[in-house]
Write a structure and sequence with these properties.
There is one protein chain. The chain is α+β, with helices and mostly antiparallel strands. The protein has a single domain, classed as Beta Barrel (OB fold (Dihydrolipoamide Acetyltransferase, E2P)), CATH 2.40.50.1020. The protein is 19% helix and 40% strand. β4 and β5 form a beta hairpin. The strands form three sheets. It has a five-stranded antiparallel β-sheet with strand order 5-4-3-7-6. Strands 8-9-10 form a three-stranded antiparallel β-sheet, covered by helices on one side. A two-stranded antiparallel sheet has the order 1-2. It is globular, with a radius of gyration of 13 Å.
């Protein structure tokens, strides 16, 4: 991952969530500070496209392994953050969360 002139080696399992506000990205990592950088959310979403990442809202991608609880309109992740869940994505998010719970 690139931030300005700096490069970071980030493992997918360490990513808790990615939040977008316009072209500003906030990458939350387990055991580390957040990394803020500029980028296109669509491009970042494609990089995280695998079975452990879900998009509960247009501006968020979350590693399902870091979700502590699901409450219909929001979820709580293990760093204590509340992540909104859109009505359109609530069913898919619930199914993904329930699948993780069954493991």
């Amino acid at each position: 991952m690139k931030k300005g002139r700096d490069y970071f080696n980030v493992k997918k399992r360490d990513i808790i969530s990615l939040e977008s506000s316009k072209h500003n990205m906030i990458l939350s990592l387990s055991g580390a500070d957040n990394i803020e950088y500029r980028g296109a959310f669509k491009d970042e979403a494609e990089k995280l496209n695998n079975t452990f990442f879900i998009q509960p809202h247009a501006a968020y991608i979350v590693n399902i392994n870091h979700v502590m609880s699901f409450h219909g309109t929001h979820m709580i992740i293990d760093n204590g953050s509340l992540v909104p869940v859109s009505r359109q994505r609530a069913r898919a998010v619930k199914c993904a969360f329930m699948n993780i719970m069954e493991r």
